[in-house]
Amino acid sequence: MIATGRIPPGPEVLFSDCTLGSEFAGRRVDTGERVMGMNMGRGFATSTNASINSMTPIPEHWSMAEAVTTLSTYSTLYYALIKKAQIKKGESILIHSAAGGVGQSAINMCLHYGCDIYVTVGTEEKKQFLVKEYNIPVNRIFNSRDILFKNHIIEATNGRGVDIVLNSLSGDKLDASYECVANCGRFVELGRFDMIQNKKLGMFDFVRDIQFLSVVLDVKLIDDMNFCQEFYDWMHKNCTNGCVKPINYKVFNASEAEKAFRFMTTGKHIGKVVIKMRDEEMDRQPLK
Length: 288
Known about the structure:
Elements: E1 23-27, E2 34-38, E3 55-57, H1 64-68, H2 71-84, E4 92-95, H3 101-112, E5 116-121, H4 124-134, E6 141-143, H5 149-156, E7 162-167, H6 172-178, E8 181-189, H7 193-196, E9 211-214, H8 217-223, H9 227-237, E10 249-253, H10 257-265, E11 272-276
Parallel strand pairs: 4-5, 4-7, 5-6, 7-8, 8-9, 10-11
Antiparallel strand pairs: 1-2, 2-3
Helix pairs in contact: 2-3, 2-9
């Protein structure tokens, strides 16, 4: 959305003249160790100058391409669902745009937590993908292109709504999502567009003791220097139990970067889009 100009870059613009490419995977120059990490831009490069705190070793059973699919997705969800929403086992959740990178990662986390999962997608292809890949029942997959999902959620939950809405939709779809939250539930806002537009939100539903939680990860990364390592510790503890695992991705070579961006604007991609600078070595041990 930054590349297309729909939203302006965040505070990371203070640290870099190029805010695109915040995730990377490669080898450390000094040790040859495979590492993955997040930086304030300049990630679309053959090399990047990153601090030790911003990176972590890549789990042995992940490739570099797999590793980069987990960074912004699971770090966002760790902050959103674990730290802020404090998700509990068995809670119900509505995950919007569930075939995307954050959506698939949220499904993995919520399956691990034994949650009661409802999702939305924008195409029939994405619907069938979720049925096949994650065994989401067809009657729990709704359309993200209109607001009828609200009626379906209210009906499916016998009028109660869900404990958590993980929202990335805007406009009237945000309003409809807001009305899907159960009493004492949490609305977790991941989207930037309505924030930038200063969208107004009625306060009446707050009498139902619900929480509105905004998640702006780049601000958290700047304000809390310990967040990255805290997230990496959690990731390593959960990368073998199904909670955190790589998601579907499509790879483009560096020479195809423009094609990759144009592909993303179609809304047809499922999972993440990865730009590969070079082929990864077969040997995953540190290179001397």
